Amino acid sequence: MNYLDQTGDLLKNNHFPEALILAQEQRRYNPLDVEAHVLAGKIHIRMGEFDQARDILTQVDQIISELSFVYARMADIYREKGLKSEAALCYRKFINLNPISEQAAAIAENLSFLEKQESAASDTDESGIENIPKPDFFTITLAELYINQGHLQMAKEVLKEIIKREPENISAAAKLVSVKLSMSKLKTVSDEDDGSNDLVKTLSGWLANIDRLNAHAGRK
């Protein structure tokens, strides 16, 4: 009988401490066992030990953080061998998994450098803007890292891709407006209108719709 069956039987009979011991032993034996972490958290909650359940999540965060460094190390290896696309992919995955680590800013800088190199070697589109990779896992976190590093154009491209994928993403739309306004302040001569006003109007419309929905819900 495996530990899941054993703990299941113990829980049916409300033997929570014994079931928790089995779950915790499995977590120590195999830190990547998802069911063991979930089971331990479930038992803590059923025992009313909510702080201990939150500790489980903190420990899982730590495991994910530590494992994410595999991507960072592999990115460095790819980069040393001149495999820029593979390196950039691993850097992005590290940032997505571990966005608040002390190393995230430095890795974002490495990623920015690689993307600039790739952009310089690629063709430009009809608007004359250099192409940068647009993977499906672009996130607002990545855009914020670019903003913090001063790479507004790259943040803009990331946010535009997010909005293409998620037209209802108000947070991305608002951040894109802010980035465009910041970019416009840095320019002495404005280039072509890229739809900032329309985006502001769209965002305002979304916010108005949300207000209407909230007002409607309040009247029920």
Distance between the termini: 52 Å
State which percent range the strand residues make up.
under 5%
C-alpha Rg (nearest Å):
24 Å
Oligomer: single chain
Low-confidence stretches: 123-134
Query: Which fold name fills CATH's third level, the topology of the domain at 134-220?
Result: Serine Threonine Protein Phosphatase 5, Tetratricopeptide repeat
Please give the largest β-sheet.
none
Give the helix/strand class.
mainly alpha
**On the 0-100 scale, what is the average pLDDT?**
77
Number of strands: 0
Report helical residue fraction.
over 70%
User: Number of DSSP helices?
Assistant: 10
Query: H/E element string?
Result: HHHHHHHHHH
CATH architecture assignment name of the domain at 134-220: Alpha Horseshoe
CATH class of the domain at 134-220: Mainly Alpha
Shape: elongated
Structure characteristics:
single chain, 220 residues, mainly alpha, Serine Threonine Protein Phosphatase 5, Tetratricopeptide repeat, 10 helices, 0% strand
